[in-house]
Backbone:
């Protein structure tokens, strides 16, 4: 089975802290993604990586950065956490095939910033 | 820019009955793919069904089928013989056919409750 594993299910952090969300996939997928899920807004893409050390901004990159030093690992960094970053964060991976390639998701990290 | 709209935030259905979830999208692309993903409570999101825009035949996966109306830009999901395990949030999603980035554009989601 394809596995995408996120390091934490639940996190509580203080405003201003630097926060790291980790994601590991075991299927040798080139593409990896970080999405943010909010009620009524669906999933919105924060950042995307198509190879080691390669990244592209998604639709809502402000306040976030990413790191991909190894193919299997993609980290999301909140440089200075704020209460409006309280949300569910989903990591996903997929193969670089045109069009209908299936994305595989992690279980999600519910982050609360207080 | 592409957009995906799910206008039903919540729906419910009795076990064994049929339910249809709606999705509309907007794009100027001629080649694209559409998906329905399922997110069960506290579990990982999984792919339910996929439709290629250039295929006229509606996709089917066991109890799940789609009604793809390309001219109307509509992509609804029909769940037949609903089961308690179908309780989940369902997301409609879009990918450009020419893209190999896999970047999905999601709708807002529909929460489906299957009642015993």
Residues:
């Amino acid at each position: 089975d394809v596995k995408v594993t996120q390091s934490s299910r639940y996190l509580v952090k203080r405003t201003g802290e630097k926060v790291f969300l980790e994601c590991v996939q075991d299927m040798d997928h080139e593409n990896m993604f970080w999405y943010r899920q909010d009620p009524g807004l669906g999933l919105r893409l924060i950042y995307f990586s198509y190879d080691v050390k390669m990244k592209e901004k998604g639709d809502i990159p402000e306040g976030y950065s990413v790191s991909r030093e190894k193919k299997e690992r993609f980290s999301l960094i909140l440089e200075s956490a704020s209460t409006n970053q309280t949300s569910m964060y989903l990591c996903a991976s997929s193969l670089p095939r045109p069009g209908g390639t299936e994305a595989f998701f992690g279980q999600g990290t519910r982050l609360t910033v207080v | 820019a592409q957009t995906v709209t799910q206008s039903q935030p919540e729906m419910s259905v009795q076990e064994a009955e049929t339910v249809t979830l709606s999705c509309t999208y907007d794009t100027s692309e001629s080649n694209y793919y559409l998906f329905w993903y399922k997110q069960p409570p506290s579990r990982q999101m999984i792919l339910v069904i996929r439709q290629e825009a250039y295929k006229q035949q509606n996709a089917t996966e066991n109890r799940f089928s789609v009604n793809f109306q390309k001219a109307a830009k509509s992509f609804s999901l029909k769940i037949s013989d609903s089961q308690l395990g179908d309780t989940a949030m369902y997301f409609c999603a879009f990918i450009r056919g020419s893209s190999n980035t896999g970047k999905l554009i999601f709708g807002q989601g529909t929460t489906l409750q299957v009642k015993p």
